[in-house]
Amino acid sequence: MSGLRTVSLRRRVTVTALVVLLLVLPITGLAVKAIFDAQAERNLNTLLNGRAQLAQQLARQNVQPANLVRRIDADGIRVTLILRNGQQLGAPAVEPSGEIRQVKTTLLGGQRTRGATLLLSADTSLLDGASRTLQRVLLLSGAAALLITALALILGMRFALAPLDAMTSLARSIAAGRRGGRLQPTRPDTELGRTAAAFDEMLDSLEGAERTARCSEEHLRQFVADAAHELRTPVTGLQTAAETLVQLGPGAPSERREELELLLVRESRRAGALVADLLELARIDAGLVLRRRPVRLQDLAQAQADRLRLVAPGHTVQLSGADVEIAVDPDRVTQILANLVDNARNATGDSGLIQLHVAATPDHAEIVVHDNGPGIPPADRERIFQRLVHGNRSRGSGLGLPIARGFARAHGGDLVCLDKGPGATFLLTLPFKP
């Protein structure tokens, strides 16, 4: 792709205007001269014919020949009257030529003028001189117009292009690291106003993206630091147990070896679960791919209720609501419900009440998970969805709820903690139309 041609805008506008003027002025001058010549020719013919008609009228009124010649005489017209007896009155007769326009008529009235010949002659060289004078005036005025226009454009371009200079200065200041400057056009409905407004919007977007990138970078640093801190505990446990096993050797008591081996298994599972959660968050950030298919939410909730009754027989589990079918990724929704149910079990201790309710609205399906535990303080109801944030009774890595919300929002829905005490209440919404 070729680069943008960056010829000086002042020079381009000035040259363009002068070229247009060079084309328009000759055409206009030729048109004016043609109109002037045609009008002058028409006026001369009208004058000669008018004088001839006046002579006919005066002859019918029996005006004396000498008086007739005097009355039809006019500036620029040579009058010659030749009577029937050959007598010639007025100016001497001339022969018509290229520079002499002549009208010849025979008078029809009067005693002495009947049958007389009237010659009206006009010298067209005067018209030619006027035409040449007009041509010179047009040439001189055209040249003066070109000069004045060029000077006016050179001076006017500085004022006209001042907004572009302001945009350039602002862009350079932004590139130099100075943020916050804006053009703020007074009239955003004009061409330059719309350009300046779009320029300001672009700067807002760029600075917003820069702030978001910095915030994301800071969050990433914090997340990596927190993840390293979380991984350090199981890794330290693994290292300690392994070193202790090596130091004890094959003669160590079997009870001690079994204890260290169980510690190795537990800490390795803990580290594996944390790594798996981190991978899930990475997939969510990269854009989760869902495998949707029609499922009955009542079946997914029933499976979690049955699992909870098996692993926590001391808890009372209640399932209610409608039988709702929706196209979702059943594995991801199952992970959401499992996280919510396990959190409810941990929050209620050895025994408690956990309720699951399935419902539907015209736009989305809902699953509510409620427990009768100590609940979540209002200040923490949004904070618990942040990564690596632990609750008072949390036994996990602090990634379960962020992952669950990420799965919900990947479906186009959401996961929130409701203000419905006592206990904790979580609402999962899933839209029917993703």
Automatic annotation (TrEMBL):
Coiled coil: none
Pfam family for this entry, one: HATPase_c
Catalytic activity: ATP + protein L-histidine = ADP + protein N-phospho-L-histidine
Major subcellular location class: membrane
SMART domains, per the entry: HAMP, HATPase_c, HisKA
Record keywords: Kinase, Membrane, Phosphoprotein, Transferase, Transmembrane, Transmembrane helix, Two-component regulatory system
Residues annotated as domain HAMP: 158-211
Domain (Histidine kinase) ranges: 226-434
Listed PROSITE patterns: HAMP, HIS_KIN
TM stretches of this protein: 137-161
EC annotation from Swiss-Prot or TrEMBL: 2.7.13.3
Protein's cellular compartments: Cell membrane
PANTHER family: SENSOR HISTIDINE KINASE TRCS, SENSOR HISTIDINE KINASE YKOH
Protein name: histidine kinase
Organism of derivation: Kribbella orskensis
Lineage: Bacteria, Bacillati, Actinomycetota, Actinomycetes, Propionibacteriales
